[in-house]
Amino acid sequence: MRIAYFTESLPPNTDGVVKTLCHLTDSLLEKQIDFHFFSPIKPDESYSWHDKVTKVSSVPFALYSYYKMGLPYFDGIDKKCAKYTPDLIHIASPTPLGVYGLRYAQKNDIPVVTSYHTHFVDYFRYFGLEKLEKIGWNYLQWFHNQCMRTYAPSPSSVNELENRDINNVELWQRGIEFDRFSPKFRSSELRDSVLDHQKPILLFVGRLINHKDLDDLAAANLVLKQRGRDFKLVIIGDGPMRPELEKSLPDAHFTGFVHGPKLASWYASSDIFAFPSTTETFGNVILEAFASGIPAVGVNAGGVADIITHGKDGLLANPKDPVDFADQLDRLLTRPQLAQQLIQQAEKTAKTYSWKAINNRLVESYRQVISEHQSFRLNAA
């Protein structure tokens, strides 16, 4: 089996899509399945599959300049893809690069699948573009329904797509790396670097962008401070909201982007994970917190609510309700016994998300898609 991927998300970028595709490459290499990426991003030589990437032309993405949007029309991709002779094409997003991959598959009678990673249409309201939401969903319906499968990362995202009349949606969840995230990475030295005396650390990890609902985190922080709660807020990540957040959260510690062992140490060295985002299709960071042995407070929306069982392994607040979000954080700040109960179950929850098992199911779905396509061709002949 030979699989061609069309995606804008590869290392050195570090978002959830990149993590997902990197773990998928691990599974494919282990199974000795051949693959090739067409992307505007090319990983460095530290990745064993560096040579399995054909770089395409690109321009900066309009909303976030550190993302690149592929423009494959000038690079002779048809010839390169024809030389590779894929059995299946997997498109990561409905960008111009994705549409190019779709058209190539249709033109050459190759089965094509896609995956749904981001509630991108939901972002429109954060930019005052609510009137474009219907157009956005119509476009996604047009794109996804030309593919034999759409892989969505959580039950809620599967339901969302099916309710939007997108067909052949299948669950492809995300996993957690237990060798990278663990309570054993807790560091008193790291805690001491931001604390002048012992108090709980509340942690946020993610891009500092408005559709992570970080204004709700800032408002909840103010509520807790007004109640006299003593804690330190640590924010890991960067993005266009950072200057605004630094003004509204003057006592918080901002690290910028952190990766690898230091990120794992921040998780394990914190006491509560605070994540107010309502737009997650999955919520990898919740699993990272669970595996690191800290309880999480999220909101009852999107993929986060698919992972957290309220009162069992974490707590869920009402979406877009900073007072309720503060209330849920307050329960953990004032009831350490509850926090310990949640931690025990959270670690068990994390262990149910195995990358190997998840990607094995995806590979089997690939095989089924190829078989269905072959059967269709025989019946049509």
Main beta sheet:
7 strands, parallel
State the end-to-end CA separation: 23 Å
Order of helices and strands: EHEEEEHEHEHEHEHEHEHEHEHEHEHHH
Lateral arrangement of strands in the main beta sheet: 3-2-1-6-7-8-9
Can you tell me the overall shape? Answer: elongated
Number of helices: 14
Class by SSE composition: alpha/beta
Low-confidence stretches: none
**Level of helix content?**
40-55%
The tally of strands reads 15
Roughly what fraction of the amino acids lie in strands?
A: 15-25%
Radius of gyration: 22 Å
Write down the overall mean pLDDT. Answer: 92
Report on the architecture of this protein.
The protein has 381 residues and is α/β, with parallel strands linked by helices. It has 14 helices and 15 strands. It has helices spanning 16-30, 77-84, 96-107, 133-144, 155-163, 188-192, 214-226, 242-248, 260-269, 284-291, 302-307, 322-334, 336-350, 355-380, and strands spanning 2-6, 34-39, 53-55, 58-60, 68-70, 88-91, 112-115, 150-152, 169-171, 201-205, 232-236, 253-256, 272-274, 296-299, 314-317. The strands form three sheets. A seven-stranded parallel sheet has the order 3-2-1-6-7-8-9, with helices on both faces. Strands 12-11-10-13-14-15 form a six-stranded parallel sheet, sandwiched between helices. Strands 4-5 form a two-stranded antiparallel sheet. Helix 7 packs across helix 12 and helix 10 (284-291) crosses helix 13 (336-350). The longest helix has 26 residues, at 355-380. It is elongated and about 70 Å long. The mean pLDDT is 92.
